[in-house]
Amino acid sequence: MSLSVVAFLVLVLAFAWGSVTAVNAGLIAIVAAYAVGVLLAGMSVAEVTAQFPASLFFILLGATLLFSIVRVTGTIDLLAHWAERLSQGKRVRVPILMVALTAFLAT
Asked: For residue 99, how many other CB atoms are within 10 A of its CB?
């Protein structure tokens, strides 16, 4: 089996484990990346760390913080209520409106 297939299977296992337990799947995946990189690919820890997309990490961290604040303040409930009203009773439109709202906020 190639290293890419093994790495993919380890990633799938990490997310499956994170889905059925209270452990954060992202943290499991980071540990798994270091394990696969160092133990199976023969990379050094510095080489594995150099492959880590730090800019993407900070974007995800900021988005997570934003949505945590939005959830605590009740704004997400308000946005969901507005999306429901805009959908005019057609429930299939709600996810489309939420994706459009997310795209608008992200730009």
From this structure: 10
Cβ pair 87, 93 in contact under 8 A: yes
Residue 52 DSSP one-character state? S
pTM assigned to the model: 0.57
Residue reference for tokens 């605590």: 72
Pairwise pLDDT comparison (47 vs 71), residue with the higher score: 47
What is the Cα–Cα distance from 79 to 73, expressed in whole angstroms? 12
- Residue 78 has a pLDDT of 86
Residue type, 32: A
- Helix, strand and coil percent figures for the chain, each rounded to 5: 80, 0, 20
SS3 87: coil
Residue 41 sits at φ, ψ, to 5 deg, of -90, -10
Tokens of 86: 């805009």
